[in-house]
Amino acid sequence: MPAEKVSLIIPIRNESESIEKLIKSIEAQTLLPDEVIIVDGGSIDDTIKIFNTLVGGNERYRLIETENATPGRGRNIGIENARNEWIALTDAGIVLDKDWLKNLVAVVDANPSLEMIYGNFEPLMNSSFEKCAVFTYVQSKKKNAIREKFIASSLLKKSVWERVGGFPDFRAAEDLIFMETVAENNIKTGTAPEALLYWQVPPDLLSIFRKFALYSKHNVINSRLWDWHYGLLRQYLILLPVIILSIFHSCWWLIVILFWIIARVMKRVLANYYQFGLSPIYNPIRFFTIVAIIITIDIATLVGWIQAKAA
Question: Using CA atoms, how far apart are residues 289 and 280, in angstroms rounded to an integer?
């Protein structure tokens, strides 16, 4: 165990459908957090009612209610009110593996000089579509390593949060900015590949569109176009002459667009070979589902971009 006790901080808003699974997974932890602070950012559904029913008089839990809080501000409020130096972070819409916190803490036990630990995550794939969604835009699975740094599966010292100035009060990208600031401040970090949690993948194209349009909008508002939007824009600018030629010269130019789409799918095939093998290549339904998801994300990116500029 760390020298200090652990506070688990969770920002929520309108999570009536997922809050029960989250609370049950907290209660099933083999190493229970010493306190759990839930920061509600202004739920208008039955989230608070369900939460109160689930936890009853359990003194381990504290609920802080605020209005219109972004995830960043919700985390800041929770950490500021935490009684302990060690802070575990997760989000709503997530189910924790029973050994999640235990495995995060074990890394601190083995490396006392570390100040922040990144755990791992697994997407829930209950349908063929969700598998294709994971294949398309979720960071590929790695052997004996975390997929990528994920703030909703992490353990850090409160002093780290103070040193980097907390989370930006943004609707999206606040976690990326926080983690980048941690890296810039040379804070000693480690990873816990066995500290798993599970989150639900958007189950259809409309949900994916809404998710990425929202993320795109707020990334543009926060001037984070270089690592997403500009790369996509370059691809379409390169493709523009081909589109013009296919319209005004010959439809055979569409073959170039076809190869461009195949190349994008193959890039994901190679990135996810460890987990999925080559199945999308010889499964036409999966192949075209991946194509549909890629195009949906491209359109959502453009729509979010336009919305941000019009705001």
Answer: 9
